[in-house]
Amino acid sequence: MEEEIGRITHYFSKINVGVIELSKGTLQVGDTIHIKGHTSDFYQKVESMQVEHAPVDSVKPGEPVGIKVESPVRENDVVFKVTEE
């Protein structure tokens, strides 16, 4: 099962980091996410996250968070949290 939790607001291609603006729910290290957009469609586990260049374990809505992504992403790509039923 998947729940939309936010969108990509920025992508730093040199370091493969996408910035997610969380709109609902929470995101934690260890969660599996699905990023889907015009050119992106992949699943990955969240290995680490940063807020304002500081490592964090979880984030709430309204906090922009940077995560290392396995494939390039684009602004407005939708981020889903994958949950087990």
Kindly identify the CATH topology: Elongation Factor Tu (Ef-tu), domain 3
Q: What are the segments in which pLDDT stays under 50 over at least 5 consecutive residues?
A: none
Q: What is the percent of helical residues?
A: under 10%
The figure for the number of domains is 1
**CATH superfamily grouping:** Translation factors
Which CATH top level class fits? Mainly Beta
- Helix/strand order: EEEEEEEEEE
Tell me, what's the shape? globular
- Roughly how many Å is the radius of gyration? 11 Å
- Give the total of beta strands: 10
Judging by the overall fold, what is the CATH architecture?
Beta Barrel
Strands ordered across the widest β-sheet = 5-4-10-1-2-9-6-7
End-to-end Cα distance: 6 Å
Give the percentage of residues in beta strands: over 45%
Assembly state (oligomeric): single chain
Mind describing the biggest β-sheet? 8 strands, antiparallel
Mean pLDDT over the full residue set: 96
Quickly give the structural class. mainly beta
User: Can you count the helices?
Assistant: 0
Write up what this structure looks like.
- The protein is mainly β and 85 residues long.
- It has a single domain, classed as Translation factors (Elongation Factor Tu (Ef-tu), domain 3, Beta Barrel).
- It is built from no helices and ten strands.
- It has an eight-stranded antiparallel beta sheet with strand order 5-4-10-1-2-9-6-7, with no helix packed on it.
- Strand 1 and strand 2 (17-22) form a beta hairpin.
- It is globular and about 35 Å long.
- It starts with a strand and ends with a strand.
- The relative contact order is 0.38.
- The mean pLDDT is 96.
